[in-house]
Design goal:
Elements (H helix, E strand, L loop, with lengths): L13 E3 L2 E3 L18 H9 L7 H8 L4 H14 L2 E4 L2 E4 L6 H8 L1 H14 L7 E5 L1 H4 L10 E6 L5 H16 L3 E6 L1 H9 L3 H9 L1 E5 L9
Parallel strand pairs: 6-7
Antiparallel strand pairs: 1-2, 2-7, 3-4, 5-6, 5-8
Helix pairs in contact: 1-2, 1-4, 5-7
Length: 222
């Protein structure tokens, strides 16, 4: 049913400051391709995201991969296999199919990563003022062939902040296989960056997807 012709391979971790690397990486824009690396993955992810029938052009646009004829071939094959329904108005994921829950789980991997980060920091003795994801992981515009770091900002007064961010970077690497850059800053450091009008603060303010805490911890950036 799915094309699993590409095996996921991992190499030993190598620490670089707070950026941790692993041989295999997850495509942060389309995490389902970690398990279903063929065009099947993006097509299934597009179908799993809605309960409304979609025409071929819409499925192709939302999948964001492959040619329209390639997407059509995938859809017709999956209709024959029963995983996709061809209905008036287009195509639907057959949620009664035994494989549908697995498809929905794989399509929601980005949300699962956010949930795991939130659960991890909730267990810290000192709760952070802000935890957020930025960069390609937040914008979901990276891919497995590009620099797919998962960038996370933590703002906290925790006296053990360095150890906390190192631990979180290691957890993210294990969860995804991607390099994880977790930046820890205290509120005083954020205030200094704001006074200096550092460009990175503007990037965080623009791109940050808040996972825990409040965006207000960054203050106002001119």
């Amino acid at each position: 049913m799915f094309d699993f012709s590409h095996a996921v391979r991992y190499s030993a971790p190598r620490a670089v400051d707070r950026t941790l690397e692993m041989g295999g990486v997850m495509d942060v824009s389309m995490p389902i391709t970690t398990v279903v690396p063929s065009l099947d993955g993006p097509v299934l992810a597009a179908l799993a995201a809605t309960a409304t029938p979609m025409g071929l052009a819409t499925v192709h646009a939302r999948a964001g991969r492959g040619s329209k004829s390639g997407v059509r071939s995938v859809l017709l094959r999956m209709v024959d296999e029963g995983l996709v329904l061809e209905v008036p108005g287009g195509y639907l994921l057959n949620r009664d199919h035994l494989a549908a829950p697995a498809v929905e789980l794989l399509a929601a991997l980005h949300g699962e990563l956010v949930s795991r980060i939130r659960d991890a920091v909730d267990e810290w003795p000192t709760l952070p003022s802000l935890v957020g994801m930025f960069g390609s992981a937040a914008r979901r515009d990276g891919d497995a062939d590009s620099d797919s770091d998962i960038d996370v900002l933590v703002v906290s007064d925790d006296s053990d902040l360095d150890d906390r961010v190192d631990e979180l970077a290691e957890q993210i690497r294990r969860w995804t296989g991607n390099r994880a850059q977790v930046i820890g800053r205290t509120p005083k450091e954020i205030a200094r960056l704001r006074r200096a009008k550092e460009p990175i603060l503007a990037e965080w303010t623009r791109d940050l997807v808040v996972i825990a805490g409040e965006r207000a911890a960054l203050g106002k950036v001119a």
